[in-house]
Structure formats: C-alpha cells, structure tokens
Design a protein that fits this description.
With about 1200 residues, the protein is an alpha/beta fold. It is built from 33 helices and 44 strands. It starts with 5 loop residues before the first strand and ends with a strand. It is about 30% helix and about 20% strand. It has seven domains: about 170 residues, Chloramphenicol Acetyltransferase (2-Layer Sandwich); about 200 residues, 2-Layer Sandwich (Chloramphenicol Acetyltransferase); about 270 residues, Rossmann fold (3-Layer(aba) Sandwich); about 150 residues, Rossmann fold, CATH 3.40.50; about 90 residues, GMP Synthetase, Chain A, domain 3 (2-Layer Sandwich), CATH 3.30.300; about 70 residues, Non-ribosomal Peptide Synthetase Peptidyl Carrier Protein, Chain A (Orthogonal Bundle); about 110 residues, 2-Layer Sandwich (Chloramphenicol Acetyltransferase), CATH 3.30.559. About 0% of the residues have low confidence. The strands form eleven sheets. The chain has a nine-stranded mixed β-sheet. Strands 8-14-13-11-9-10 form a six-stranded mixed β-sheet. A five-stranded mixed β-sheet has the order 5-6-7-2-12, with helices on both faces. Keywords: Phosphopantetheine, Phosphoprotein. One of its GO terms (molecular function) is catalytic activity.
C-alpha cells in the first residue's frame, strides 16, 4: 500500500484485536470469522451496475477499506487507503441442469466462504454474482467479521440496493458518520472503574468453564442444528419475562447457564455473550457500519435452593451493574479476573433491527430495470465448540452451532434437548428450585442410574471369621502364610489365632471393642489380626515405623482395650500407649500362657457377646483435613462382601501365592491378605525390595501369582528381576493409572493380567475394577477405573445431586454393602460424608468420595481428578491440609501452603511453601519437628521460603504461580575425597536432578523418596559394580557413608552374558510396529530420540569419535539394521568392526546453533541401510 495513498491510521476496537489474534494464531486453518450474505434477485440484474454499486459502498465507508498491521508497531493498527478496487467475480450456472443447479451454487458459495482473507491486504470484502437463469441471480457478499457486525449488515444491504438504483452515485445517500468517532469514544472510557467492576464480578471464580479442552485447530467447517419454539410457547416466554421485569435475553441466558452447568458439573459457570456495543450517547450510532459488538464473559452462579424466577432476577441485576463497562476487551477482562481462557461456549441474542422489505429497494421509485429481492440470508459461524444463537421473531428460533471435530451430532442434539427442557422448566414451574431442574434425558438417566450404577447385594450378610474358618476346613495342611520369621499352614494359623482370641476375650475384648496391632511383617501380625476378629473385636493396624506422634494419636483416638506388639517394638510402642495395656505376642511367657488355651474355633458362647455381621472388623486411619488422621470403621458384612468378590473374580490367581507388600495400616492390605486367606491362597509378607533380594537368594523361589500395588510401583518393578512381578494378576489402585505408564512395563511381562481398581477406604478395599487381558492394547491416557462389582452402586452426580450424562464430569458417590460404618468418634464428619441415598431404598446411605469422574460410552468410569484438595501419592491418600497444618504450626511460620508437584514426568513430590518470620526460619529444625508427626510419605521433599504467598486478583492462593523448588544440598558439605565418593555424588545429582551434591548431603533431605532410592541403588550397582541392598542404602543415605559401606561390599551379581543366538533374529512387538510405519511412510524423524550435550573445556574430536565407536561396538542394538525375508522382518546385527557411525563436525554460532541442532535432530534414518545412531559436533 503506497504511503501517499493512505487516508487514515486507526486503532482497533477490543473485538477487532481479538479477531486479528485468532487470524494470526490460526493462519493455516479455516477462518470461522468469514461472513457470507446471500441476496437472491429476480428480474433484470445488470452485473456492471451492481459492481459499481459495490465499489461505491467501499468508497462511502472508509473502514470497509481497512487493512490490519501488527508488525513494527507497539499495538496493531488499521490502515485506511484512499481507494481500493472491489474484488468482483461472476459465475454462470444457467447451463447446469435445474436439479443440480442449486447444489452447484452452494459449492461456489462454500468455496468462496472458506477462502481466507489476508488481513493485511485490503479490501476484506468480495462480491460474486452467480447467474442461475435468464432472470435469476444470486449475489454473494463475503467479508471478514473484523470489518462489520450483524447490526451493520442490513444497513449495508439497504445502501447497496440504493446505490444500484442510483447507478453508484454516493451523493444520493446521507453523509456517513465515520467509524473513527466510535474509536475516539472508546479512548475516553474510565479504565480504572471498569477494572474494579469486572474484578468484583469475577471474584471467587475457581475455574473456567471449558467443555472441549485441547480442541486444537479448526479442521472442519462448523455445523449447526436449527430449532424453534411454537407460537404459544414463544408468547408465554415473552409474557413471563415482562411480568417479572426481565428481558427475554436474560431468560435465555439463564437457561443456557443451566445447560452449561449440566455440561460441566459446576454450579459457577461462565460463557460468552455478545453486546451491541453501540453507545447511545453517540448520535447516529444506530446507522453506522463497523464492528461495534463485543464478546464478554457472563458469569452464572447457580444456587440450588433458589427459585428459577429469583435466579433470573439476580442474573439480570448482576449484568446491569456492568452495562457501563461493556466496552472492555475480553483479553483484558480475563487478565483482571486472574485467568486465561474463561469459557469456550457462547450465547448470542440477535436483536438488531432488520429490514423486512421485499421487492423494491427502500427509497426507490418504481423502475422496470430494478430486480426484485426474493430473499436475504446469511451464513456465519462461531469459532467456539458450542454456540447458541437466539433469533427473537414472531416465534423464538434458535441455532446451535458446533465444531464437528469436537462434538458429534448426537451429542449436540442432546444439548438442544437439555436447553429445551430448561426453557420448559421456566415456563411450567418458575417457582421450581434450581437444584430440582432435571435436564438429563430420561433414557440416559435410566442408563446411568439403573444399567451402569450397579446392583444391590441380595446375599445374606456374613462374618469374615466364618469365611476364613470354612477355608481352614477345606485346606488345613496348605501353607497359608510366609513371613521373614517363618511359615504357617492354615490349621496352624487358625489354631494360633484361636488361642490368642480366647486370651483376648479374657482381657475384655469383644464386639465394639478395639485392639491395636502394632507389629511389623511377621507371622504375629496376621495371627493378631485374626485373633481380634475371632474374639469379636475390631483390629486397628498401627505401623511401628510411623512417627511417634502419629502412633500416639491413633492409639489415643481408637481407645483400644489393649495393644498387641512384639519384643522388637514393644518398648517404643509402650511409650506412646498412654494407658492401654501392651500385649507382647512373642514373649516366652505369653507363649506359655497361650498354650493353655484351646486352639479350636470360638463360638458366640465363648465371646463376651454374639458377633454379628454389623459389628466392626477393623479401623484404618486415613489422612484428615484438620491436621489429624481419622479412623474409618469397617464392619464384617462389608469386609466379607469385598473378599467374597475377590475370591470369585480373581480366581485362580488369588488362590496361589500372593504378596502383601503394603503396610497393614494401608487399606490395600485388606485385599492382599484377607482375600487370599478365604480363597486357599498363600500370603507372603514382604516388601518389593526384600522380595527382589529373596528372588535371587532363596532356593526354589516361587514367583507370586497375585499382587496388589499402585501405579507408582510399576517404575520400581521395572528395575527388578522379572521374578518379582506376579505371573498371573497384578491389581493396581490408590492413584490414577495412565496407559503410557503401564505400556512399557507390560512389554516386559506381557502375560500378566492387570486390573485397575478404585475404591476409598470408606468403601472397603476397592469397589470398581477394569480388567486388562494380556493380549489387550492399552491406549495412552487415563485407564478406566471400571464398573462396580456386585452389591456396590456408584453414582456420578452434580452439585445438586443430579446424575450427569456420559462424558461429563461429576463427583463420585458410592453406595451398597461395602460402605464403612463411618468415622470413629466423628459423628458430624460421618453425617457430612455419608448421606442419604436418594436413589436407593429408604434408609440407605451413600458416600461422597470427593473424586471426579465420568462415564465413558462403554459404561465404565474414568477418573478425572479430585473435587477437594486431597491427593494420592504412591498409593497413599493425603489431605494437603493436614500437612499444611503441621507445617504452619511450627515456630516462626506465618503462612504455609503444600502442593503436589510433578516437575518431571512420573516424579511426584510434595513441596511446602512457607512465609517465615524474618530471621526465624530453620529448615533443618522444621524437618526434624515434622518427622515426629508425619509419616515418610507425607513429608515434603522440599521447602521453599517466600516473602509472601502469591495471590490471584480475587485474593485466593495462586497455586500455579508458586515457584518450582530448587533441590540443592542443604549442608556446607565437603567435596569428594575419593573417586568412589565423586561417582556417588554424581549419581545422587543425576537421580535427584540437582546441579551438584556434596558427600555430606542426605538423599532424603534433598527430596529423595523410596522409588528414587531404588533407581539410585540400581545405578550404583551398575556403575560401581558393587552389591548394595536397599536397606544398606537407607542406613547410609549420604555419599560419604555409602562409600564406606561399598568399600566392604561384594561384587554385584554377575552381569548377563552372551549366549548362542539363532541365525535369524525376529523383531520385538514394538520393533514390528516401528518397522511397519517405516515401510508405510518411508524414513522419518518422528521416532528419533535426540540428545544434546553442551561441552566446555578442552575437547579432542577424534577421541570423542572413538568413544562413540566404542559405545556402538558395545551395544548390538546400536549397530542393527532391518530387512525382510520370506518369513518376514528380521534384525541384522553387524559386527563391531564393520560399522562406523556418522560423526560430523560443523561450525555454528550462538544465534544459529539451536536451528542447527533442530536440523540435525530431524535426520530421517533409513532403517534398512544405516545404523540408528549418528552424531554431529
């Protein structure tokens, strides 16, 4: 554009800035802001006359000639040239067969509609005249929405036809008020007042309202579903609005808010609305042409107890307070609200004035040369995944636009049905409570509540002790238990438990009495638990490794009749009992005493009172929000129902050898101990590290057939011998399982069945499960948590306890026989979490889990997160509030916040942020104090001291703004003194992702945990060739101490040695997939794994080349190519002296090296001709 031809330079309106951003951001996709108007003409139409009219229209309105520039300026501007030529095209379809003509015309329009405008090259408008017959034409007017809004279109069309009438003479029309006057008005607004108003409007908003996260670029044209209400309903809606002082727009907005709440499961939602943006104080604004409209966020807060009429009145009042501030751009409002994208749905109420004339153009004298306007229609579309357009005419008409790449038509039809139900609810019951409005399709409601939710348990309630004793009778001589201190058959285990149970009865144990069991992994642990159950009591497992303060709280809170211990922990446990008697199970005197009791089974006559299925079986403590753990009371009937299900569903593996590697204080132990013991299985008490060592040292070691674990254990199992993994079934629960985490492990043990299970302690073990057979492929992403088993019901509900549709997130509620009784001594909390079941029999209860999930199309639940601040770490359910309370309770701490971070994939760590009193923060002292009250899995890996906690604009803690911790050495430690110490310091730093570590730094103080410890031990064994056990490492966690241990350690187990291999080497399953893709697509860099090292100091390139050659020679996979023969694909391993990897050198600069690296990383390997490794220096 020549500078001399420039008429004006203008700023952009807020919405123009947004449209320019979308155009630049999505420059390769379809442009949803192209608007197309169809004008059907009949009679004599002169193409040249019409073109001159269009040209005159551009000359009349300067802003229709605008070009938009953003480069080289601080803020984007629109440049107005003095003259541009109207793009004009003609298509003659008169010769096309009549039955095909309309389709051909639509193809012309569609092609024109989706041809992108370059916003920097004016004009952003074009005309195409389509000849449909001798006296029939269709004018296509296509323009970019950045030039004009919907209000402007009737004005433009009236003026176009008038200019046609007067042969393009612009003087026949009144003078135009320029668009720059509006932009000048915008510049005089009170920005501070607007900021205050919008900030107040969005105060307390917790989350945006997103129905299609990660929707990606627009790849297909938006589609829409048109629908309308009949005349009677339309009139009734208008009467209702007027009689209550409401606008029809407000009523429709409120109904869309109800639908959006239904779609998101939230009662505080936001969607976009459009306002005309034409300020009444600007004379003549109603006849101006341009983009005045604005898209604004509308917040809708739903209160279940409020009536629909009251809700709509409040909604209108909240909007009225923002009328003077509707000129502000959406991006600025979102910044003030402290959020990014606030919404991805919109609702437009199209109430601008229309020209309803037909035939002659307005103001035109009768003229036989003038065509008759048969009809005018337009096509535009929203770029939002869902957008409702309301057209208030004689009858209410609607159009719901959607992106087909996000929603299929059936899903959108369901949204339409929900919206119509919302409208009908307002008309039929305006006094209905908001929480009682049902938008879910009745058939879908029946599916999720009846077909998918599970079933009631029709079997009679049982006592666990009966199930166990029946198994003893079936397999008395079979080994039931293997522990570090010995083995017991079923008969021996039963007799020992019976003798102890009789003694416990003498000591006052019976139904509704608790007995703490503070025993490590020994036979006494299981004997003690069974004995308490047989005596009629409820056992309370207390992990002896817990911190003293936590043990003390658990024992005080449970108020047990006595505490079962063993000699190795009795002194320590006794100090914390504060009253209850300790009973030392392995004391010689105890053995003598118990020998005098019968080993036969107890009957109710032997107990203090009859044992009923409704009596408590155990109390397990879980993390609590108040800073103290809470005890969950589980009854015999719940425990029996759970283990019965495990016996039938997990057979035969559960009847083989099981591993109980979880602490007895963790509810995962219920399924790994009690279920095998009623199924004829043998239970090995151990942890994974000890099991790995046993696998290599125990003669005749038998691999387990069944094991329970958490997804975090997969990384640990991957570092261990394959014998540690079960051969039959692995059950995973306690935290989210993702396909990309599971798949690599399954490649190493492809024959194992994996069961992803779900269930909180309050629902006994687990109550939903998803089975993954060995031959089933698992896709990346969340693995479903499955379906409920018999006797369990599951609901996914919104905040008003209404069922949500499949695919929509809601909170998970559980009901049925496996529900716990409640929380020990906490009636208020029990009443809050265990509520009446509105869908069950009278008197039934349901448990509010706090978990968020959705139904998939197969009727399985998919976990989506937490509704509260509870997290799951390595299988443990943790209330962050409990840790925050402990941290904040320390001296010198003014504020504290704790988050679970995953700064590296798969490495989750708790991080505590503190605001200390100046000069009073002592991290070492804080760690020591917390170690007395928090178990290891709840200890923060890092502490970050801040001057203040970051807050969002609405005053809430901005967790996203909390800085990532820097894990560094916390002591002024010594430098390495020996090569071994130096290597250990490097390995510590590598595993912990730290820049450096001193020999005196403690692994766990640096943020390490048990899973990372396992990785480090593996690296030490490999690097130093020394035998090192996990226990040895835990006892010597600094490099200095560990170097001493390693000095006296033996050599590591013999490494794998080469064996004769077959002449033909087949491909692994993963290699077969990649080879197939290579053959299909040709050489590609898609699966390259580039590694970049930045080196400093003296470098000898030839030495580096030789080192690379040695590495390739050492690893056969690095000198392998692939080919095919008559049997299929095979590997070709080349001799070490027969290959030389490509080693290139090149010069680069600081400015260019990143681009050079990217080019090198994009090298496409020919897998059939070149080895899969190369280097560039």
């Amino acid at each position: 554009m020549a500078k001399s031809g420039l008429e004006d330079i203008l700023p952009l309106s807020p919405l123009q800035e947004g449209m320019l951003f979308h155009n630049l951001f999505d420059d390769q996709e379809l442009d949803a802001y192209n608007v197309q108007v169809f004008i059907d003409l009949e009679g004599g139409t002169d193409p040249e006359r019409l073109r001159r009219a269009g040209q005159a229209l551009l000359e009349r309105h300067a802003n229709l000639r605008a070009a938009f520039r953003h480069e080289g300026v601080k803020r984007p501007v629109q440049l107005i040239p003095r003259r541009v030529v109207l793009p004009w095209g003609e298509e003659d379809l008169a010769g096309v067969a009549e039955e095909e003509r309309e389709a051909a015309a639509e193809r012309v329009a569609e092609r024109d509609r989706w041809t992108r405008f370059d916003l920097s090259r004016p004009p952003l408008i074009r005309f195409t005249l389509v000849r449909l017959g001798p006296a029939r034409h269709r004018l296509l007017l296509t323009l970019h929405h950045i030039l004009a809004d919907g209000w402007s279109m009737p004005i433009l069309l009236r003026e176009l036809m008038t200019l046609y009438t007067v042969h393009g003479d612009g003087t026949a029309l009144p003078r135009v008020r320029p668009y720059r006057d509006y932009l000048g008005w915008l510049g005089g607004r009170d920005r501070d007042a607007a900021r205050q108003a919008w900030t107040a409007a969005f105060a307390g908003l917790d989350a945006p309202s997103i129905v299609a996260p990660g929707r990606g670029a627009l790849t297909a044209a938006p589609e829409r579903i048109d629908f309308s209400e009949d005349e009677a309903a339309s009139a009734a809606l208008t009467r209702f609005a007027r009689s209550n002082g409401l606008t029809v727009n407000t009523v429709i907005q409120g109904c869309w808010g109800l639908v959006l709440s239904h779609l998101t499961g939230r009662d505080d939602v936001v969607f976009g609305v459009t306002v005309s943006g034409r300020p009444p104080e600007l004379p003549g604004v109603d006849t101006m042409v341009g983009l005045f409209m604005n898209t604004l966020p509308l917040r809708v807060r739903l209160r279940p107890a409020e009536t629909l009429t009251g809700f709509l009145r409040r909604l209108q009042g909240e909007q009225a307070r923002l009328i003077d501030h509707q000129w502000v751009g959406l991006a600025e409002i979102q910044r003030w609200a402290g959020s990014g994208e606030l919404f991805d749905t919109a609702m437009v109420f199209e109430n601008y004035p229309l020209n309803s004339s037909r035939g002659l153009p307005p103001g035109a004298a009768p003229d036989a040369d003038l065509p008759t306007v048969l009809g005018v229609r337009s096509k535009d579309q929203m770029h939002y995944p869902l957008g409702l357009l309301a057209l208030p005419r004689e009858t209410l008409r609607f159009s719901l636009g959607y992106l087909p790449q996000v929603f299929d038509r059936a899903r959108v039809e369901a949204v339409v049905a929900a919206f119509r139900r919302a409208l009908r609810a307002v008309l039929d019951g305006p006094d209905t409570r908001v929480g009682a409005v049902a938008l879910l399709d009745p058939e879908v409601r029946g599916t999720v509540l009846e077909k998918w939710s599970g079933s009631d348990d029709v079997r009679p309630a049982e006592r666990f002790t009966d199930l166990f004793e029946e198994q003893v009778a079936r397999t008395p001589g079979k080994t039931a238990l293997i522990a570090p201190d010995g083995r017991l058959t079923y008969a021996e285990l039963d007799a020992a438990a019976n003798r102890l149970a009789r003694r416990l009865v003498e000591l006052g144990v019976g139904p509704e009495r608790h007995v703490a069991v503070a025993v490590g992994r020994r036979t006494e642990l299981v004997v003690g638990m069974l004995a308490v159950l047989k005596a009629g009591g409820a056992y309370v497992p207390v992990d002896p490794e817990y911190p003293p303060d936590r043990i003390r709280h658990m024992i005080q809170d449970a108020d047990p009749a006595l505490v079962l211990t063993t000699l190795d922990v009795d002194d320590r446990i006794g100090e914390e009992c504060c009253g209850p008697l300790t009973f030392v199970m392995d004391d010689p005197g105890t053995g003598t005493s118990l020998g005098r009791h019968s080993g036969s089974a107890l009957t109710d006559a032997d107990r203090a009172a009859p044992l009923l299925p409704g009596h408590p079986a155990y109390v397990i403590y879980t993390s609590g929000t108040t800073g103290r753990p809470k005890g969950v009371v589980v009854e015999h009937r719940a425990l029996s129902a759970f283990v019965r299900h495990c016996r039938s569903s997990q057979a035969p593996d559960i009847s083989g050898l099981s591993v109980m590697q979880a602490s007895a204080s963790f509810d995962q132990s219920v399924g790994s101990l009690h279920a095998p013991l009623i199924s004829g299985g043998c239970v090995r008490l151990t942890d994974l590290r000890a099991l790995a060592e046993t696998a290599g040292s125990e003669p005749g070691f038998h691999r387990a057939t069944f094991m329970k674990g958490t997804p975090s254990h997969l990384a640990l199992l991957a570092t261990m011998p394959p014998e540690v993994a079960p051969s039959g079934t692995l059950t995973l629960g306690g935290e989210e399982l993702r396909g990309e985490i599971l798949a690599p492990w399954r490649e190493t043990v492809p024959d194992v069945t994996v069961v992803n299970v779900y269930g909180p302690t309050e629902a006994t073990g687990h109550c939903l499960e998803h089975w993954i057979a060995p031959d089933r492929t698992v896709e990346p992403g969340p693995v479903p948590i499955g379906t409920p088993h018999e006797g369990v019901r599951v609901y996914v509900l919104d905040s008003a306890l209404r069922p949500v549709a499949p695919g929509l997130d809601g909170e998970v509620y559980l009901a049925g026989v496996q529900l716990a009784r409640g929380y020990l001594g906490r009636g208020g909390l029990t009443a809050e979490r265990f509520t009446a079941d509105p869908f069950g029999a009278p008197g039934s209860r349901m448990y509010r889990t706090g978990d968020v999930a959705h139904w998939n199309d197969a009727g399985e639940l998919v976990f989506a997160g937490r509704a509260d601040r509870q997290v799951k770490l390595r299988g443990y359910r943790i209330e962050l509030g409990e840790i925050e309370a402990a941290v904040a309770g320390g001296p010198g701490v003014r504020q504290a916040a704790v988050v679970l971070r995953e700064d590296q994939p798969g490495d989750q760590r708790l991080v505590a942020y503190v605001v200390p009193d100046p000069g009073h923060w002592d991290e070492a002292a804080a760690r020591a104090r917390l170690a007395l009250s928090l178990p290891d899995f709840m200890m923060p890996s890092a502490f970050v001291a801040l001057d203040a906690l970051p807050l969002s604009p609405n005053g809430k803690l901005d967790r996203a703004a909390l800085p990532a911790p820097t894990y560094t050495g916390r002591t002024a430690g010594r430098a390495p003194r020996t090569p071994a110490e130096g290597i250990l310091c490097d390995l510590y730093a590598e595993v912990l992702s730290l820049p450096a570590v001193t020999v005196d730094d403690d692994f766990f103080d640096l943020g390490g945990h048990s899973l990372l410890a396992t990785r480090l031990v593996s690296r030490v064994r490999t690097t130093l060739g020394a035998e090192l056990s996990i226990r040895q490492f835990f006892e010597a966690p600094t490099p200095a101490a560990l170097a001493v241990v390693l000095a006296g350690a033996g050599r590591a187990r013999a490494a794998l040695t080469a064996r004769p291999r077959p002449e033909r080497l087949p491909l692994s399953y993963a290699q077969q997939r990649l080879w197939f893709l290579h053959l299909l697509e040709g050489p590609s860099p898609t699966y390259n794994i580039p590694t970049v090292l930045r080196l400093s100091g003296p470098l000898r390139p030839e030495a580096l080349r030789a080192a690379l050659l040695d590495v390739v020679g050492r690893h056969e996979s690095l000198r392998t190519t692939f080919t095919e023969d008559e049997l299929g694909a095979r590997q070709v391993v080349h001799p070490a002296d027969g290959v030389r990897p490509v080693f290139e050198t090149a010069e680069s600069t600081e400015a260019d090296y990143e681009a050079d690296l990217a080019r090198a990383a994009r090298h496409a390997f020919d897998l059939g001709a070149e080895i899969p490794v190369r280097a560039r220096l």
